[in-house]
Structures are given as C-alpha cells and as structure tokens.
Amino acid sequence: MTQQFWNGDVDELLRVGTRTEGGTRTRTGTGTGTGTGNGFDLAAIDPASTPGTTANKKAGQAELAASAQELRELQERLFAQSRAGAPDRVLVVLQAMDAAGKGGIVNHVFAQLEPHGLQLTAFKSPTEEERAHDFLWRVAPRVPGPGVIGLFDRSHYEDVLIQRVREFAPPEEIERRYGAIVEFERGLAESGTRIVKIMLHVSPEEQAERLGDRLADPAKHWKYNPGDVDERQKWPEYMAAFQLAIERTNAPHAPWFVVPANSKWYARVAVQRIVIAALRGIDPQWPSAEFDVAAEQARLAATAGLRWPG
Amino acid sequence: MTQQFWNGDVDELLRVGTRTEGGTRTRTGTGTGTGTGNGFDLAAIDPASTPGTTANKKAGQAELAASAQELRELQERLFAQSRAGAPDRVLVVLQAMDAAGKGGIVNHVFAQLEPHGLQLTAFKSPTEEERAHDFLWRVAPRVPGPGVIGLFDRSHYEDVLIQRVREFAPPEEIERRYGAIVEFERGLAESGTRIVKIMLHVSPEEQAERLGDRLADPAKHWKYNPGDVDERQKWPEYMAAFQLAIERTNAPHAPWFVVPANSKWYARVAVQRIVIAALRGIDPQWPSAEFDVAAEQARLAATAGLRWPG
C-alpha cells in the first residue's frame, strides 16, 4: 500500500536542508546562522504541490486509513518500552497560518493514536502570568515524558512569529530567542526526545477560501475570529518570519518539515508519514518481562478456583 | 441503526438506583447512607450479561463504529459552545479490577473523540508528595474545564477501594472519604460538570483468562504486573469495597453505572452509549457568532487580491 502510494521518501523530501530533486524545491545550503537552514527558501515551495506522490484525494484517504495500524503499533511499542525505562519520546511541533489545517491534522492523524500515549497542548495567547516569565516558561512543563508523543498545536515558535510580526517584543529579544530555542530543543533531544517541527504551508488564496467557508456556515462560526483577517493582511511579514525562524532553528536534532497544505488530504498523509518515520527512527521494542513468566503462570493457576459471589 | 441495536435505554438500565426489569438486576432502594445507592446489589449483576441488547459481537462492533459520528458531533458542539462561555463539561470516572478492559474502552471509545476536547488522566499509585496531601489534592487540578470531556482512568475512588482493602488508611479516614467525595463531586456538578461514574464488571474467571493471555504473549508482558495476582486474591474484599463505594457515593448529580464487561464488545458500546446520553443531556448548541458576519465577509473580500510571493 505504502509502496504504491509514495514514490519517494517523503520524510526526506519535505525536510528542510535536504537536497531534493523535483517535488519540493527546498535548496540545500550552509551558512553561519544559528540553525542549519541557510539556503532554505520558503518562497520556492508550492503550497499546491504534493511531493512524493502522484495519487489523488481518494487514494490519499485510503492511505491515511491503511497506515493507522502501523502508527498505532509503533506508538504502543514506544509506550511499552518506556515502562521498562527507555527514555525515548517524540515531540511534534505544528505551526501554520490560520485555517491551514492544524485542526484537521489533529483530528485525522493524531486522533489515530492511543489517547494514553498522546499529550496534546494547544498554546494560546500568553496570559498575564505567562508574559511575566521568559517565553519558554510555559512550554517546558508541557514537553512529553518517556514513551509519550507530545503534540504542540502552536508552540514557542509563536514567540518568534506573531511576536516578531506584531512587534510584541523588541528586535534584540526576538533575536535572542532563536538561540534560546536551539539550546532548549538540544536539551530535549539529549534527554531522548525526537523532535519534528512541521509548518503547514497554504497559499493566501486557499486561506481566503477556507475563511470564507467558515463565515458561510453557522456551525463553523466558532472557529472564526475577526483577528484572522488582521493577521492575513500581514501575510508577507509572516512568511518572512517563518523563513527566518526555520533558517535559524533548523538543526539535525530538531529538523523542520514544510508540508504543502493546500490539499488537506496530502498534508494529512504527509504528516502521518513524517511521524511514522520518526517512530521508525527510534525503532521501539517490546520490553522483556521483568518477572518470571512461568512462576507467574503458576501463581495465576493457583487462583483458578476463584468464584464470586462465592 | 441505534434503534435496532438497543432494545432499551441502556443509560437507564445500567444506572445504579434505577428500577429495571430483566437485563441487569439492580435493585432500587432508599437508605440513610451518604449516597443514594442503598438497595443496590453488585452481586446480583451478571458480568456476562448484555443488558439492553440481544446483538452479537459483530453487530456490536458495527454499532460502535456507526455511533462514532454522533459522539464526535456532540463533542464538537460541547467544545464550540464553551468558546462562547457555556460552562458545561463532562467527567467520566472509570474504575475496574485489573484486565477488566479499561484500556480497550480508552482506545476504542474515547479514541473516537477529537483530541483537543479530551483530557485523560491515568491515576497511578500516589507519589510520596501526593501521599503527604489530602487524597483529593492530586485530583482537583485534573478536572476538566468548560467544553472538555475529562476521563479519569482510575480516580479518587482508588482511595476507598485499594486503600480500604489493603488498609493503607485507617477505617475512620476511609469512612470520611465517602462524604468528602460526595461533596467534591457536588461542587463539580454545580460548576457545570456532568459526572458519569462507570464500573467495568468482570468475573474472576474472565480475569484469569485475560491475565493468562498477557502472560502467554511477549508483546503483552509489559501490561502484566505480578501485583495483579496479589490483588486478584482479594476479590471478595474488592467487591465489598466496590459495593460500599457505589452505595455511599451514588447521587443524582454523580450516578454510578455498572457495566457488565465479560464481553469486551458489549462494554464498549455500552460505555459509548452512556457518554452519548450524558452529552445529549447537555444538548450543546453551536454558539451564535460574536461578530458581524456580513462585515467580516466584506473585510475578507477586500483581501482577495493577496498573493504570495507577490
């Protein structure tokens, strides 16, 4: 199924800083920035493209359903091995413009996971208390523990995206944050966290259509915020902020993936595949029993006569 | 679909303190206990029964899948209306002996929900810090906020179940806790929480089979704990503790449901139906727009020419 659907390694194709042929046009480069993303060019990635596959929506939806089982088994192994002390865990960071499909990714990809092993955090505008602390203060307690897949729906990257565009923090503070993020993520990686950072990349035309749909449907009004149009008007500034954030914080231990997201079905299978690749990279194993199996079978057998009510 | 599958109102059939004919044999009564469960008799409920339906496993699995959509829509409405200030939320408490199927309920029923609106807490043996506080100290911060479905996989009821059976707390302290729980849950209910407390009820024979399966499969060893057999040996004491906990804490604002759980498929559809009934009871509504829809459509239209890269 997967072999037929994907004609390339989408995990590599969408990863920033990887040389690719065709598909996305991410350029490889070296540079002096904090991150390893120099040479990356967001403007060269077509939000309507579907790198790695020539399939259509119907096949995409079938692939999404068919790969759920592998995703779940990998997750269960990850969770199981942590019970025996393995430190591995996964952190997925999801960033995007409004209406780019984050909600759909959560409900169609991450909803395939077992709830026990998923820790989802939706970061909102910081509260007064949060603003009184360093920007990472509210993030640190939400990183996943061993065996868990953590999902950040928005994240500490808001602090170099909207905060940059809206000038909520002075330029030198924004500048400081890129380095702070790299160090923060390095610490997570060194304690066993496989980090995957995903930008869902839509075009402004596609966003307009989706916001229009929300306005047209009373059951979707609650998803609409007048501020969405305010932010939309700053599109070039946001893209510049994404470009810079990706350049400065891309790292081997915390790579960025730019996922073309005009096609919802494509973004979903691509994210599913990226998460599966991260789990395969960990290659989690069922832990061996920390007890004597035969002895336990005997103890259990000795209780075989138990009846209730007696 | 639902009409054909259920031949009774399973939400009522399984609710403690409701008079029922056939199916479960929960007796109705009145009493002087803290709760309204006097007259309830756990021993009269057959763990192998399937109250409310004469269907088989295949039909049960079909029903579970078919009702996912209603469950999700109700959940989305609950979440949506909270954005506009509605206080309603749901707390599901799940209690059971080991291997009774809690994990399956989480992975087959609650996994149907949208992750954003589900808050799952698995309560483990209390830590040293938790033991230094009142038993509700660790529970209070985990109750769901508006719009959220909270699921407690084990809960404050452990403090009157294993703690009673194992005498981890003196009898007068256990006695105090029933009343404390009733008051705690009353406070939750008064702030908009619909509480549903579920005991998955298996027979000791069924448990032996499931524990044996875990011991026979290396991929399931991580789910097995030698302590499971120790607790199993105290089966009558546990059932007495459940009986008492249910009697003393059943209340109109926080009812108990005893779900026969020897058939996994039955327990899953029954729990799904109980949660759906709780959500229907709230009857959540799409909130009306807090903005001028036409004005927003005009603002959006004014940005129609936006292109990027420009």
UniProtKB/TrEMBL annotation, chains A, B:
Compositional bias (Low complexity): 18-29
Positions of the Polyphosphate kinase-2-related domain: 56-281
UniProt entry keywords in alphabetical sequence: Kinase, Transferase
GO molecular function: kinase activity
Residue segments, region Disordered: 18-39
Name used for this protein in its record: PPK2 family polyphosphate kinase
Upper taxonomic lineage: Bacteria, Bacillati, Actinomycetota, Actinomycetes, Micrococcales
